[in-house]
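JOB MANIFEST
job_type = single_chain_structure
chain_count = 1
residues = 66
[input]
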Amino acid sequence: TITKEDYCCAICANGQKAADSDKILCAKKGILEPDFKCRKFKYDPLRRVPKMMPSLPEYTFEDFKL
């Protein structure tokens, strides 16, 4: 699930990334910063960048020895 703190134009279905800069071209509000938030936000799950998974601990043979 996405929380209210995660809303931003970078993952909104109404916006597109500008070709020449890091700005977002919004169909509702115009040219915006990627972290801008507005009421017209519509979540697009394909634009979200997932968080990195934590690395698994390294086990040795000694850990499994009885």
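[summary]
Residues 48 and 54 are 18 Å apart (CA to CA).
The chain has a mean pLDDT of 87.
exit_status = 0
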